[in-house]
Design a protein that fits this description.
97 residues, mainly beta, four-stranded antiparallel β-sheet, two-stranded antiparallel ribbon, 4% helix
Length: 97
């Protein structure tokens, strides 16, 4: 299981007035068992800026054992905009990741 707040680097329990506010369409993803050094099919997650200010960031770093294609997100998000994170499981060792 992958907890998405860790992938997107977001742990936002609430949002302040006059700020950007990140919201993910799922809080966790489940992947089937995967052979070490192989990569699963991707699962899409929407990252939305529900605040009233633009959101900028320099990158999205996944936890070990996962990959994230965030190409549609890297330019940042205007207030009210969203983008897609494509997450895959790519284990580097045996066991739960």
């Amino acid at each position: 299981m992958l907890v998405l707040q860790h992938i997107a680097g977001l742990a936002l329990p609430g949002c302040g007035v006059g700020s950007a506010c990140a919201q993910l369409s799922a809080s966790a993803l489940s992947f089937a068992s995967q052979v070490v050094t192989s990569t699963s099919a991707t699962q899409a997650v929407t990252l939305a800026n529900t605040g009233n200010q633009a959101m900028t960031f320099t990158g999205i770093t996944p936890s070990t054992g996962f990959t994230v294609d965030a190409a549609t997100c890297l330019a940042g998000l205007a207030a009210g905009a969203n983008c897609t994170l494509n997450v895959a499981f790519a284990p580097t060792a045996t066991g739960e990741q």
